[in-house]
């Protein structure tokens, strides 16, 4: 690992000041991607700004139909939160499927979505359940947050404070999990909002997206068979050592169907 | 940089480099070599220690990120004459062979049992996903964790394994037909 300056500000204001003053700074949440990347010298920031002491980034706030989750919530905090288990269980299930226990004890919501790994789990939740990503200076529509491979709408130095989720009537996440890494080869989050069904896909394309055509079909009839005739186009999908673009396209349909049948089975 | 760490109940003030990993500081500065470096890429879990009561991989954490925290390593959980119940269980069940993965395995297993209300063998297998063992084939590790989990276990690990083996044999027979 190259050398760097380490900072641990206590509030957002101090974090922003540190970011402005540094040559090539980067924020770190849990560091579960960043630290391994720095060890491999794939990342070499001059300044590491650790956000773990910034109290403003923590917390869980419930509205009548919303959950606002602070960016520095660790995955296992989401998994173990009794109220989330009760009112938005799909989010806990999704968080429980990330990496391994040690990783879930460190990794954070904000870090996961700022990194925008194409195979990350939280991005599926942000596009399907999210309404907005709240940063220190504005609120970004969840549907406009992910732009491309590891690319988001965040501007340099912008700090994610929280993500607001809209609570669906019911939802389910189905994931074709890579057996070694735990990442989603493809993951599908299907959420039923009564008047519409939303489908978030991760792992398939360069970033998470909503499958609008599948959403239309499922909004008419929420059954796995409703999309039986669909052929998901693989244009622009990722093709790598783990799966071809065509296989990922096939998995999109299968994962959506699995999520739908699980959602229908739920009591 | 100066950091304050509590390690196995003792307070330390240490001067570390910003890019020193926690595992390096534990092993090289404090001489606590029970915590291992296996893969050094956060895959194998041999470096697992507890930070503020939760299992983390010490090879994927900077020592400076652990400033002002409470660290527990394998050296801090029991003594030679009075082993931790998880250590006892690993010994009783022969849950180790070469022993390299064992400290990390035990630290993760303690986190798993402490933070689960009930466990079955599938959950134990899932719980130690982040820890690799190249010797045992895992079964005796699962048995050891089940023994230490005691009343939290809702099924017998051996019965579950027998059931799985029977099903596998049945499906092999089906295939060869």
Largest sheet of chain B: 5 strands, mixed
Mean pLDDT of chain A: 97
Largest sheet of chain A: 5 strands, antiparallel
| Global shape of chain A | globular
How many β-strands of chain B, per DSSP?
5
Low-confidence stretches of chain A: none
Distance between the termini of chain A: 50 Å
* Tally of contiguous helical segments of chain B: 6
- Domains of chain B, number: 2
Compact description:
By secondary structure, chain A is an alpha+beta fold. Chain A is built from 10 helices and 14 strands.
Please tell me about this protein's structure.
The complex is a heterodimer of chains A (267) and B (177). In chain A, the strands form four sheets. A five-stranded antiparallel β-sheet of chain A has the order 4-5-10-6-7. Chain A has a four-stranded antiparallel β-sheet with strand order 11-12-13-14, with helices on both faces. A three-stranded parallel β-sheet of chain A has the order 1-3-2, with helices on one face. With 267 residues, chain A is of the alpha+beta class. In chain A, strand 13 and strand 14 (209-210) form a beta hairpin. Chain A has helices spanning 12-21, 34-39, 75-80, 82-87, 89-96, 101-104, 109-115, 122-129, 212-220, 245-265, and strands at residues 5-7, 25-28, 47-50, 60-62, 66-70, 130-135, 139-141, 146-148, 151-152, 160-166, 170-177, 184-192, 197-202, 209-210. Chain A is globular. The termini of chain A are far apart. Chain A has two domains: 5-52, 2-Layer Sandwich (Uridine Diphospho-n-acetylenolpyruvylglucosamine Reductase, domain 2); 58-265, Uridine Diphospho-n-acetylenolpyruvylglucosamine Reductase, domain 3. Chain B folds into two domains: 1-76, Roll (Ubiquitin-like (UB roll)); 79-177, DNA polymerase, domain 1. The mean pLDDT of chain B is 95. Chain B has 177 residues and is α+β, with helices and mostly antiparallel strands. Chain B is elongated. Chain B is built from six helices and five strands. Chain B has helices spanning 22-29, 85-92, 102-114, 121-127, 139-149, 157-176, and strands at residues 2-7, 10-15, 48-51, 54-57, 69-72. Chain B is 38% helix and 14% strand. Chain A binds chain B through residues 1-6, 8, 28, 31-32, 35-36, 38-39, 48, 50, 52, 76, 80, 99-103, 105-106, 180, 182, and chain B through 1, 17-19, 40-43, 45, 48, 51, 54-57, 60-62, 64-65, 67, 108, 111-112, 115, 127, 129-131.
